[in-house]
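Q: C-alpha cells for this one, please.
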Amino acid sequence: MSLRPTRAAAAIAATLAAAALAGCGGAQSGDPASDSQTLTIYSGRNEALVEPLLDRLEEEVGMPVEVRYAATAELAAQLLEEGEGTDADLFFSQDAGALGALKNADRLAELPQAVLDRVPEHYRDADGRWVATSARARVLGYDPEAAPEVAEFTGIDQVLDERYRGKLGFAPTNASFQSFVTALRVDRGDEGARQWLEDFAALDPQAFDNNIAVLDAIEAGQVSIGLINHYYWYERVAEKGEDGVAARIRFLASDDPGALVNVAGVGVLEGSDMAEEAAAAAEFLLSDEAQQYFADETAEYPVVDGITSTAHDLVPLSELSGYVVDLNALDSLEETLAMLDEVGLT
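A: Here is the predicted structure, written as C-alpha cells:
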C-alpha cells in the first residue's frame, strides 16, 4: 500500500520516533556537512552499533563521510520534506517500511545490479531502489518453567489463551512490534488483524518500553511470554552464557506473521551528486567484512550467503524459516498506528 509523501512522513515519524525514544532508534548527532566532496549519510541505525563500521566505510569510499544519527522515522520524514534539496546521499534505515515509503515517494535512485545481486531477491526492492544490509526475526521469548508448551508453538494465535492472562509482554512503541502488526494486516486483512489485536488486548498484556525490558520481565518471572526480536536473547546469552539466561526463544512457522523477518537496509537518494560513492558505500555494507560485523557484533542475520557468526550460534538466514512478505508493504504504518490506538494497545 502506497502512502503520499506527507502521509508517509507523518506515519513514519509518529511510529518509529516513538521506538527511538524507547531506546530502539539512533542517538542524535550533529548536522552533516554540506561540502560537495563529503558523502553524507542519514543513519537510523544506533550510533553505538554501527559507528565502527561507518568509520571503515570512509576508508573504502576514499572521501570524508559525515553521518547524521537519529531515529529512522525522523530521518525518513525529514528526507520526504527536504525532497531534492537534501544534503543526504545515502539513507541507512533500521526498518524496511521507511525504505518502502521513500521508494514510493520516488526519493530513492536505482542501485547498481552488482550491489543488488549480493542478496537474495526477497531482501531487495523489486525495482532496485533499496537493498537489505542485515535481518532480524520476530520470536517468542518465554519462561520454560512457566510456559514450557511454547517450545512447540508454530503460530502467533497460540498466545491467545486464557492461561496467559496478564502474562504476555510486548513493547507497543517498538518499530518491530508495529511492523509485525503491519505484516498481520497484510496477511489477514484489516478485519483479521483487528480481531487478533482485540483478542490480545483482552488478555491484559503488559506493555514495556522496549524489547530488553520485555526480556527482563521474562527473566524475572513477571511475564511468561514476550514478543521480541531474536538478537536480544542472543546478545544476553553471549554476555551470560546460555545457562545464565532463564528465558528461551521460539521461532514460529514460516507461514505465520509472528515469524516476520524484517531488515535494516540502505538506499541512495535520488539526485545525489555522490551517487557513485553512495552506491560504493552500499556495496561495502554488503561486503564480507561488514556482514561479518553484523553477525558478530549485533547478532543480526547477515543477508549475504556464506557468512555465519563466530560469536553467536545463529542459524544461517538461508536456513531460517521466516515469514515471507513484500517488505515494501510494511510502509502502511499510519493505518497500523490507528488500529493499535483503536484497540487500546498504544
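A few notes: The mean pLDDT is 88. The chain has two domains: 5-135+262-320, 136-259.
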